[in-house]
């Protein structure tokens, strides 16, 4: 008996995956995530942190969070766009440090990942209807919720794969005084196969990609970022273990198509944004690092040990990364930055 062609097998897998899930109902944004048991205080939400959600037309609720420095003397606002592979909660430690430096901090999950709402089953599948949805959502949040101005300027900071979303949001006219690309991932996405393009053409972008599998605790435990700290590197798993609504098992065909279509078209130039900071482990490539010399006001900082998730790296890597961000935001010297939060003792067990 001849084996079935790979495209037929792929279509069968996605159809079986869809049939195995309950497609009824929707899931709202998670606005009350539970801290994992045993998590160190420095990894918890900053004082006064609050969740909220916006509802784009035709899409699920998108989750944002905000925390502000205690007292007066606020020095600006920072909007953090996490990488799609991590929940916003893993940025609490960084948000706390930026609050201590005098900045209002916003966290925004711009797609149907993390704790944002889901309208399609399986609910642990990342999906978006079109490539414009993410940038448009960022622009809407900035315009209607953050509302930056001369007395409260906004810096947008992207992490990993959210770099393209930040760039496209700025191209839509989102008002930001500066942008930070933290370890931007801008490699060439895999091209869509013929059968995938056909499935998208007939409106099947909502189907799970063939490699989609339900969220697995064992797989989640193994998926720690390269070069991460033993405790920080387990934060994504720990938050997902404690909060099923944060779990992700894979992506839809539509989400994969967005990745395949997205390409860097150049860095923003004034008046779109006045200052750019790129923190990377390599000065070359097809993404922002290779183009930093073109626009004025672009600063490229190469830290060879940075890795893909510097906010979760060991302290010897994370501190220089954070110091560069604080200096860029406010011109502070290393002697005047706020104290970093205490880390767990070296003999403490990892969280989760």
Explain this structure to me?
This protein has a single domain (45-332), classed as Rossmann fold. With 352 residues, it is of the alpha/beta class. Residues 1-5, 11-24 and 332-336 have low confidence and may be disordered. The chain has helices at 6-19, 92-100, 133-146, 163-171, 194-201, 217-222, 235-242, 253-261, 315-330, and strands spanning 50-54, 62-67, 76-81, 103-108, 125-126, 154-159, 178-182, 250-251, 275-280, 298-302. Helix 1 crosses helix 5 (194-201) and helix 3 (133-146) crosses helix 4 (163-171). It contains nine helices and ten strands. The chain has an eight-stranded mixed β-sheet, sandwiched between helices. Strands 5-8 form a two-stranded parallel sheet.
